[in-house]
């Protein structure tokens, strides 16, 4: 038996995301007052994705309890739809986008923080909030993957959905630049047009890699789990 029930973990993670989002939106940052507001930052979009995902997980936990009590076929049908939506969000958005944000942020930060998170931001964003946005996302989503089996879509459809999201965000970033004349991230100001195209192409490929990695990790975790349970049954 787990030391902490998965339902309690999901509620705690959901509450932490609500806290992070509230503190982030309360920040008095000039960038939040310009065109696109917080929505031009992938970090904020990812936080919303994670919050929606864990809210759906908690809703499913509550619905499961009610379905067991009521034993209604209609409730079971609706519950299966919610589970299918949860698994799709996990596979296509929550894991690949969350892993992408953590990896790219800290890679650029360690190389040259001015490219992605200028030192000036330390005056606005406390360290704990920075880690809440750019660090804990990954362990939280891995905890969810470890405690609940998620059914992935076929790889072509999953990759198509991930790439659609990635290209959509790139186009949104370009539109913000078209309107304001300023790139969302400092790194884009420091490279030329051709390098920018290569940069965007590389990032699009990277988010696809994280989708496949999430699929493989999910299969590995649950294949191991099934094998372990089978061995225990045989041992008995």
TrEMBL record:
UniProt entry tagged with the keyword Chloroplast: no
Name of the protein: Androgen-induced 1 (H. sapiens)
Catalytic activity: 13-octadecanoyloxy-octadecanoate + H2O = 13-hydroxy-octadecanoate + octadecanoate + H(+); 13-(9Z-hexadecenoyloxy)-octadecanoate + H2O = 13-hydroxy-octadecanoate + (9Z)-hexadecenoate + H(+); 9-octadecanoyloxy-octadecanoate + H2O = 9-hydroxy-octadecanoate + octadecanoate + H(+); 13-(9Z-octadecenoyloxy)-octadecanoate + H2O = 13-hydroxy-octadecanoate + (9Z)-octadecenoate + H(+)
Compartment(s): Endomembrane system
This protein's GO CC annotations: endomembrane system; membrane
Membrane-spanning parts: 7-27, 47-67, 88-108, 128-145, 157-185, 197-214
UniProt keyword Transmembrane helix, yes or no: yes
Keywords on record: Membrane, Transmembrane, Transmembrane helix
Top-rank taxon: Eukaryota
Pfam family, any one: Far-17a_AIG1
Family assignment from sequence similarity: Belongs to the AIG1 family.
Species per Swiss-Prot/TrEMBL record: Neogobius melanostomus (round goby)
Topology within the bilayer: Multi-pass membrane protein
């Amino acid at each position: 038996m787990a030391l902490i029930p998965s339902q309690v973990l999901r509620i705690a993670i959901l509450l932490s995301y609500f806290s992070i989002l509230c503190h982030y939106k309360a920040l008095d940052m000039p960038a939040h007052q310009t065109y696109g507001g917080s929505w031009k930052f992938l970090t904020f979009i990812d936080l919303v994705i994670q919050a929606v995902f864990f809210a759906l997980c908690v809703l499913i936990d509550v619905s499961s309890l009610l379905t067991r009590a009521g034993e209604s076929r209609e409730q079971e049908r609706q519950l299966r739809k919610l589970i299918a939506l949860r698994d799709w969000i996990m596979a296509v958005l929550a894991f690949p986008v969350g892993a992408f944000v953590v990896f790219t942020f800290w890679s650029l930060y360690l190389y040259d923080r001015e490219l992605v998170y200028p030192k000036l931001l330390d005056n606005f964003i406390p360290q704990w909030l920075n880690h809440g946005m750019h660090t804990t996302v990954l362990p939280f989503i891995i905890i969810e993957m470890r405690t609940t089996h998620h059914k992935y879509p076929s790889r072509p459809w999953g990759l198509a959905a991930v790439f659609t999201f990635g290209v959509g965000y790139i186009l949104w970033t370009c539109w913000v630049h078209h309107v304001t004349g300023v790139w969302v991230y400092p790194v884009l100001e420091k490279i030329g047009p051709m390098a920018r195209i290569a940069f965007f192409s590389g990032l699009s490929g990277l988010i696809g890699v994280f989708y496949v990695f999430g699929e493989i990790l999910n299969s590995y975790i649950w294949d191991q789990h099934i094998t372990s349970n089978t061995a225990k049954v045989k041992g008995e």
